[in-house]
Design brief:
Elements lengths: L4 E10 L3 E5 L4 E5 L6 H11 L8 H6 E10 L2 E8 L7 E5 L6 E6 L9 H9 L5 E6 L2 E6 L2 H8 E2 L17 H12 L4 H34 L4 H35 L1 H55 L39 H54 L3 H63 L3 H18 L8 E3 L6 E3 L2 E2 L8 H21 L8 E5 L9 H21 L4 E6 L10 E5 L21 H9 L1
Parallel strand pairs: 3-15, 3-16, 10-14, 14-15
Antiparallel strand pairs: 1-2, 1-4, 4-5, 5-6, 6-7, 8-9, 11-12, 12-13
Helix pairs in contact: 6-10, 7-10, 8-9, 11-12, 12-13
């Protein structure tokens, strides 16, 4: 049966006040002059349940939040959503009795945790499915959401005279058709899952086929030989490599035997080289020691020279008393000088012992003795250096002699074998490189075989999935009779509403589930007038609504919101009568089904027929939809559909 969905009330909250609009009866007409907020009220219903609503400046600037009291399936909910703040992408679920917050849900389906769409679809017991889509050549999926389903519920004024349930929206087009199939049971989770699988297999098959073609083109350009020819070539190369490795091993063995014969001579050479190295180190040490001895002798000679100069100066200058400065010739006898201090430098006079000739002579004798000893040690170190130099020459000569003997002994035996070993090694390396190249080519052939097998596997899986899909679709084919019945009901609905006298037949296209008028598509009606198109659109939605009520296995929502059912209608008698027929149909549905359905209608004028079945919400410039906001009057009208068109530009 129809999934039960009903709005009980909508509370609009501003900074200063709030106002509640109730939808108690089976049908409610929201009427008022253009710009008083009829469409905005309906848009706020959509906003409250998570939809993307087009709101006028009056709503965006003054309304803080809205609360919608709804019945979804068997659940009574209170949904609160703010406007124009950082929490507008969340909806608070409140307790209908206490207004206490139960939880806060995100709008977007598929987000972490449960979303508002998940909650509402689950409450409606409506299947939550993902449909296959295609984007930039890749198989992708899209989750069907409550907002998608709400498009069948809410017929907006901006599209009611030109499109059927958003069928002109390329992005929404596949969702619209799949939602129709789900509502009528023409598809189910199995069919959709198989469709997603087929889309994925199609993408995989395309990728694997392209990969196989690329590998085949590479093999054709790289080497014309087949895989069998490469296999035979690889076996031949491996046999040649085994023979080359055997020859190389024989040469190395022979070289090792010849090398054993001169092992003694090689040992002598190593010892001679070691002895030469040690002799060089001894020579370096002797040179460094000799340089140190020479430095000591030079220092003693400098000390003796300094002592001689000092003694001479004392001897020559001590008898004199200076009365003038020997440097600048100024007189010194007038300057105050402490006793026992020098008149020239003002330092204390030295003790007599410091200038004693005997002490100076004793110091001179000690330095001369040190000089004699240092020269004797220097001469001994020079002899050691001479011996070290001779030792180095002898060790170098011995090493050179042994090396020449080894070279002469191995020249005729080892060198030719080294050349043969080098040639054999190069041959083996060339064969290994050839084997690697052939092996790599064979790996590409193996990859091509693997890809080809993967292609066959994908084709087999696709064939099985296609067969399963056809089988399941065949099982659901009996339900196509529902579309036939719907088409018959639609024809009767159009006949009752009589949009135009020239309409002879009205059916539902079984391929896309859109109206056909006189076997022509809905788009062909645009030239016949917006009022006629609007009437046919209303007939299509009313047919779906009534069909869902009367068929227990059809999941059409029991709520229908229509904005401007008389849009684009003229003021002549025929147009007025067509409007009355539409409202008579509203009345008949409300009387027949009562609380099982809900109609919410926005219109510029009140219902053209008097009836107790219609609840009323009347708006005017003195009492616009946004509470507490003064409307500037008919000269300052801002309509919701105008906002949509402005943003679309």
């Amino acid at each position: 049966m129809a999934v039960h969905l009903r709005f009980i009330a909508l509370t609009v909250t501003t900074a200063d006040t709030e106002k509640t609009y109730r939808f108690d009866g089976p049908a409610t007409v929201v009427s008022g002059a253009s710009g008083t907020g009829k469409s905005s009220l309906l848009m706020l219903l959509k906003h409250a349940v998570g939809g993307r609503a087009m709101l006028t400046p009056a709503v965006r600037n003054h309304v803080h939040s809205v609360r919608a009291e709804v019945v979804v399936g068997d659940q009574h909910m209170l949904l609160k959503r703010t406007i124009n703040d950082n929490q507008t992408d969340h909806v608070d679920v409140l307790d209908p009795e206490t207004l206490a917050l139960r939880r806060t849900l995100t709008l977007r389906a598929g987000a972490a945790g449960e979303s508002l769409s998940d909650l509402l679809l689950e409450a409606l017991n409506f299947p939550r499915e993902s449909i296959p889509t295609s984007r930039e050549g890749k198989a992708t999926t899209r989750d069907l959401t409550f907002v998608d389903l709400f498009t069948y519920v809410y017929r907006e004024a901006r599209g009611i005279d030109r499109e059927v349930v958003g069928h002109l929206d390329t992005w929404f087009k596949p969702a619209r058709a799949h939602l129709f199939k789900l509502m009528f049971g023409l598809t189910d989770s199995t069919v959709l899952e198989l469709a997603r699988l087929l889309g994925l297999l199609k993408e995989q098959l395309k990728a694997k086929t392209a990969e196989y073609d690329n590998v085949q083109r590479f093999l054709a350009a790289a080497d014309p030989r087949t895989d069998e020819e490469l296999r035979a070539e690889l076996a031949n190369l491996r046999d040649m490599l085994r023979r080359a490795d055997a020859a190389l091993a024989a040469l190395r063995h022979e070289l090792e035997e010849n090398s054993a014969a001169d092992a003694v001579l090689r040992q002598d050479l190593r010892e001679a080289i070691d002895a030469a190295r040690e002799a060089a180190q001894e020579l370096l040490a002797a040179q460094e020691l000799l340089e140190a001895r020479e430095a000591v002798v030079a220092q003693i000679e400098v000390d003796i020279s300094r002592l001689e100069r000092s003694a001479t100066a004392i001897e020559k200058l001590s008898p004199f008393d200076f009365v003038v400065c020997p440097r600048c010739m100024q007189r010194l006898n007038a300057r105050p000088v402490p006793e026992d201090h020098c008149l020239v430098c003002l330092q204390p006079d030295p003790a007599d012992d410091d200038v004693d000739p005997a002490a100076i002579q004793q110091t001179r004798n000690a330095l001369e003795q040190q000089l004699q000893d240092a020269r004797a040690v220097l001469a001994a170190d020079a002899e050691v250096l001479q011996a070290a130099q001779e030792h180095v020459q002898q060790a170098d000569f011995l090493a050179h002699t042994v090396r020449r003997q080894l070279d002469a002994q191995t020249r005729d035996m080892v060198s030719p074998r080294f050349e043969a070993i080098a040639d054999a090694s190069a041959r083996a390396a060339t064969l290994r490189a050839s084997i690697d190249a052939v092996t790599q080519l064979r790996a590409y052939w193996a990859r091509a075989r693997g890809i080809d097998q993967a292609v066959r596997d994908i084709k087999e899986r696709r064939a099985r999935a296609t067969a399963d899909q056809k089988a399941r679709t065949a099982e659901l084919a009996a339900r196509k009779g529902l579309v036939t019945d719907l088409s018959r009901n639609f024809n009767g609905m159009v006949a009752d509403l009589r949009p135009a006298p020239w309409i002879e037949s009205a059916t539902i296209d079984p391929s896309n589930y859109l109206p056909l008028i006189n076997d022509g598509s809905f788009e062909t009606l645009q030239a016949d007038g917006g009022g006629i198109v609007t009437c046919i659109n209303v007939a299509y939605s009313l047919t779906l609504l009534e069909f869902g009520i009367t068929h227990p296995d059809v999941l059409v929502p029991s709520l229908l919101i229509i904005d401007s059912p008389r849009k684009a209608s003229g003021t002549n008698a025929d147009d007025q009568e067509r409007g009355r027929r539409i409202y008579h149909r509203f009345q008949a549905l409300a009387d027949a089904y009562g609380s099982r359905i809900q109609l919410i209608i926005a219109d510029n004028d009140s219902a053209p027929i008097p009836s107790a079945a219609f609840g009323k919400i009347e708006l005017d410039y003195d009492h616009p939809m946004v509470p507490g906001v003064v409307h500037p009057g008919p000269g300052h009208i801002s309509r919701t559909e105008d906002e949509y068109e402005d943003r679309s530009r």
